[in-house]
Amino acid sequence: MTSITLRRHLTDAGHDSDLIFLLEDIASACRATAYEVRNGPLKGNLGVAGSTNVQGEDQKPLDIIANDIFLATCANSPRLAALVSEEIEEVVWLKEPKKGDYLLFFDPLDGSSNLDTNLSVGTIFSIMQVAEDGDRNVLRPGSDQLVAGYALYGPATMMVLAAGKGVQSFTLHQGSGIFRLTHADMKIPEGTAEFSINASRQRFWEPPMRAYVDDCLAGKDGPRGVDFNMRWVASMVAEVHRILMRGGVFLYPLDEKNRDMGGRLRLLYEVAPMAKIIEAAGGAASTGRERIMDLVPTEPHQRVPAILGASDEVWRVEAKHAATP
Ligand code: F6P
């Protein structure tokens, strides 16, 4: 095992030491979460917790456990000013914010409906910096992100980071607990005929989304001239990881059922971090009408439509929207 460690990578990249400490705390929280996820059935932590989160969704015991792990681990970072979690309604302020302090946005356990069936789940996170002393604004566009990342609790536990240049993936070595670089400078392959959407919602889709998917489904004889494959894991972390590894596009569009909420997925701690990672790997991320990274949130738990992946596919979806205003 010769590949370099997460710390060595971050140090070589010249990051501020306080940012490295925070990223190491996040890595520790992901390691502890991976441990709890793997032992979930043995510790009686599957099923529902009997509580709901700010979005009114049923919380799983592991949603709460992972959230507590992140709070307890990351709150130690001396320059972390605030946390915004999917599981907590209010912003958690840890100190009086000073210019350059960090803001951490996270979804402690994304795709947690997969837990009971022992399928992949993940953690998504994003770091921004306080703009001025005393500035408590957390409603900032994705383009303000300093770092975006996720951990995937799959057959192997991996942490994928867009911090500085490019996108790197680190795999957790189960014996030592060390994350080591296994995939350097990840790039989304273009021209892959694979899309990812919850097709059970087809009857609620808008015309541009129907048109895009119809073109894909028409296969070799249709306008795309190629047979498409389809996948739906119901865990955005797993879908995005597959796209980084072998291309394709992930679609959670606006539809008649989620229109009143603005979409399905949360902007600040789900879609914006994934958009930063996807763009850093050469892809694109859009609502279908606007670039995700340019959106300025109006509230911490805001939802948005999400179209992300290989840029040629994302542009096609945007073109369909532009053609059908
Ligand atoms: O909450 C987010 C999430 O679990 C994503 O990880 C996933 O892509 C999506 O919801 C699954 O949605 P659905 O319930 O429509 O399959």
Description:
- With 325 residues, this protein is of the alpha+beta class.
- It has two domains: 6-183, Fructose-1,6-Bisphosphatase, subunit A, domain 1 (Fructose-1,6-Bisphosphatase, Chain A, domain 1, 2-Layer Sandwich), CATH 3.30.540.10; 194-322, D-Maltodextrin-Binding Protein, domain 2.
- The protein is 29% helix and 22% strand.
- It has seven helices and 15 strands.
- It has helices at residues 6-12, 17-39, 61-74, 207-217, 236-246, 267-280, 311-323, and strands at 80-85, 92-93, 102-110, 121-129, 147-153, 157-163, 168-172, 179-183, 194-196, 229-230, 249-252, 265-266, 284-286, 303-304, 306-309.
- The protein has an eight-stranded mixed beta sheet, sandwiched between helices. A five-stranded mixed beta sheet has the order 10-9-11-15-13, sandwiched between helices.
- Helix 2 (17-39) runs antiparallel to helix 3.
- The protein is globular and about 55 Å long.
- The structure holds 6-O-phosphono-beta-D-fructofuranose.
- The site of 6-O-phosphono-beta-D-fructofuranose has 7 residues, from loops.
Task: Supply database-style keywords.
325 residues, alpha+beta, Fructose-1,6-Bisphosphatase, Chain A, domain 1, D-Maltodextrin-Binding Protein, domain 2, 15 strands, binds 6-O-phosphono-beta-D-fructofuranose
